[in-house]
Design goal:
Belongs to the sulfatase family. InterPro entries: Alkaline_phosphatase_core_sf, Sulfatase, Sulfatase_N. This is Sulfatase N-terminal domain-containing protein. Helices cover 22% and strands 20% of the residues. It has 13 helices and 25 strands. It has a six-stranded antiparallel β-sheet with strand order 13-24-15-20-21-22, with no helix packed on it.
Length: 676
């Protein structure tokens, strides 16, 4: 739903056109798409072969062709950032089947094979040491035999997904060649924006289980897969939002330690980048020809994603502006990488770079890297004691000499305390200059104050039929502790069917709907926990007042149970106990809809009838929080049993500061195209 402001949309940040998704991730089959600032639906259905990455490649090709047809002398810039290969891992079965049996050796042996190939290809120095598996990670031999088919299929789907994404990237490059533009286009290809993700923990069919701290077992997941979706072949389909086992992530980060969400080790953040510009033409403003000669030798100079913009400025001969429309600009971060293009051994020009994510942090300076692992262990379930007692002032620092130790295999902190102290001061200076402080601010809303994450300031809504695509963060909330009462003034006929209102999608959601005259309310705390209230009899035709009441047992801790009750014209007609509720978010990108369920469906009952538009008339949907619930009180009640007021105040003092929740860190691949 369009409500603005739109200044933070891509078109408000300098792009003349945008096509894609705005959330940290989205379904590849039922994406929540936007064109410029307008929410749109995919051009085809999943059953018709639709896949978002293919669609985005087609859109990029269309833009290139339009440029050639209408403005052939005008340079263009394309920022091509598909959702592949970020979760959820969605790809058609034939792509995953290409990798059957390829990973049967397990993750430790896969890591060994990858390591030897990396050295043979010259991608890593011959002196590199292969770091061992972390003691807290699961070894392949610890996976029971009956569970291995599940773990292997998770990885096969990801591999197929990765190749599929590569293929779409290739389609765009092939179009540049077809149009005769390849030689004169600077291509910056970044494999990803972080290391492989461990958020699948033990391997999952619903990646939001971990985000919402919901327990799961292999047996539970296989029961759902077999009962509802036909078994292992459903992995990669639109029905599940799967994520591989965290130990596969460790194998994919060879030869480094750790995974995504760790800023202390390069397994969390180091990623390959390739630049191509075979033959540039001279063009206006007297810019000189710049050519990147083909060279298979990897560059060893240390650089960061913030160095891409300075590289582009230097490449096209543009001076970074000090003012834009009268507004003074912040200094440009980063160092151009142009100097490395044709000189493999040139002296490095970047002297320092900080890293930080939710308390995990590191700093680079002239070949040295000092770091702190932080309070979170991404590949393990949340440790409440560890999180509650974490104090950044007592963190243990590590130290590595990257000029001799490519994989951070040897921690020199105990041997060189003076160097550690020096690096800590450098981190503090860089963190201060780049507004990183206070340390761990990213944990503030995720762990300590979710009520201060993105949410509507409203406590009451009047909504009407046809209002759709309202962001979950801007809609009525039905998360843990948010007591609510929804009243629907509705006109129904015999055998009324369709969605009255809903939020979320296949990964998790809440939907109130009718089917053949019966009234339903379905609360889905991920695919594993589905609770349905149903009226005992069909509703009589005519004008009816339907009420849906959701009351949580707020003293039960995280994800407390709730009573979900249905009323029609003041009489109770249905009830169900919601045993496990959603703590943070139903879905990463699905929205709130009135009168239909756009995107992936919340309920299995109508999954083949989407958008399952209501066939009656909704005059008014009125939703309000009740029983004293407000966004600033419910979480305090939840955490009271596990944390004292003194501890809470200590955390507030340690983490106080403005912060916008970066709930989903995007792992999609990044490619930029500039025609010069």
């Amino acid at each position: 739903m369009k409500s603005g402001p739109f200044d933070q949309y891509p078109t408000g940040l300098g792009f003349s056109y945008f096509y894609g998704f705005l959330a940290g991730e989205t379904s590849q089959y039922n994406p929540r798409l936007y064109e410029n600032t307008n929410p749109i639906e995919p051009p085809r259905k999943p059953e018709e072969g639709y896949h978002l990455t293919e669609d985005m490649a087609d859109q990029a090709i269309k833009l290139i062709r339009a440029n050639r047809a209408l403005t052939p002398d005008r340079p263009f810039f394309i920022y091509f950032a598909p959702g592949g290969a970020h979760g959820p891992h969605h790809v058609h079965k034939e792509w995953a089947d290409k990798y059957k049996g390829k990973f049967d050796m397990g993750w430790e042996k896969l890591r060994n094979i990858t390591f030897e190939k990396q050295k043979a290809m010259g991608w890593i120095p011959n002196s590199t040491k292969l770091t061992p598996i972390d003691p807290t990670m699961v070894k392949w031999e610890e996976i029971p035999e009956e569970q291995r088919a599940f773990q292997l299929r998770l990885m096969e789907v990801y591999a197929g997904y990765l190749e599929h994404t590569d293929t779409q990237d290739g389609k765009v490059v092939e179009e540049l060649e077809r149009q005769g533009l390849f030689n004169n286009t600077l291509i910056i290809y970044v494999l990803g924006d972080n290391g492989a993700s461990a958020e699948g923990i033990h391997g999952t069919i619903d990646e939001l289980l971990a985000e919402n701290a919901l327990p799961s077992t292999y047996q539970q997941q296989m029961e759902v897969l077999n009962r509802d979706f036909g078994g292992l072949d459903a992995l990669g389909s639109q029905h599940v939002d799967k994520m591989y086992h965290s130990s596969w992530a460790w194998a994919l980060d060879t030869p480094f330690k750790s995974t995504k969400l760790v800023a202390a080790h390069f397994g969390g953040m180091r990623t390959p980048m390739v630049m191509s510009w075979p033959k540039a033409k001279k063009w206006k403003k007297g810019s000189t020809e710049k050519v990147i000669k083909h060279d298979p030798t990897p560059r060893s100079q240390f650089h960061h994603v913030c160095d891409i913009a300075p590289t582009i400025y230097e490449a096209v001969g543009v001076q970074f502006p000090t003012r834009v429309e009268g507004a003074k600009q912040m200094p440009l971060d980063g160092v151009s990488m142009v100097y490395t293009w044709n000189n493999v051994s040139v002296k490095e020009r970047k002297s320092a770079q900080y890293f930080e994510v939710m308390g995990s942090r590191g700093v680079y300076k002239d070949g040295w890297f000092a770091s702190v692992f932080g309070p979170r262990i991404p590949w393990a379930e949340a440790n409440e004691t560890r999180m509650r007692e974490w104090n950044p002032d007592t963190d243990v620092w590590e130290l590595y000499d990257l000029t001799r130790d490519f994989s951070q295999a040897e921690d020199l902190a105990k041997e060189m305390p003076d160097q550690v102290a020096k690096m800590k001061q450098i981190f503090l200076m860089e963190a201060t200059a780049n507004k990183v402080l206070p340390i761990g601010a990213g944990l503030y809303t995720i762990y300590y104050h979710p009520e201060e994450g993105p949410h509507s300031p409203l406590t009451e809504w009047k909504l009407y039929e046809g209002l759709t695509r309202i962001a979950e963060s801007n809609a009525p909330g039905f998360h843990s502790g948010q007591n609510s009462l929804a009243t629907i003034d509705v006109e129904i006929s015999a055998n009324a069917s369709g969605v009255l209102y809903c939020v979320g999608g296949t990964a998790g959601g809440f939907s109130v709907y009718m089917d053949n005259g019966y009234l339903y309310a379905e609360y889905m705390s991920t695919l594993l926990y589905r609770y349905i209230a149903k009226s005992t009899t069909p509703l009589q035709p005519g004008t009816r007042k339907i009420q849906v009441r959701l009351i949580f047992e707020t003293t039960k801790g995280l994800g407390p149970p709730a009573d979900l009750t249905l009323f029609v014209d003041g009489q109770q007609v249905g009830w169900v106990k919601v045993e496990k509720s959603i703590r943070l978010v139903f879905d990463a990108s699905e929205t709130f809809d009135v009168g239909m369920d756009l995107g992936s469906p919340v309920s299995l009952l109508y999954q083949n009838r989407t958008p399952f538009k209501f066939n009656g008339k909704i005059n008014l949907l009125h939703v309000k929080y009740i029983n004293g619930t407000s966004m600033h009180t419910w979480w305090c009640r939840l955490i009271r049993p596990t944390i004292s007021l003194g501890q809470l105040l200590k955390l507030d003092r340690a983490l106080l500061g403005p912060y916008v929740l970066p709930f989903f860190l995007v792992q999609s691949r990044r490619t930029s195209f500039i025609r010069l």
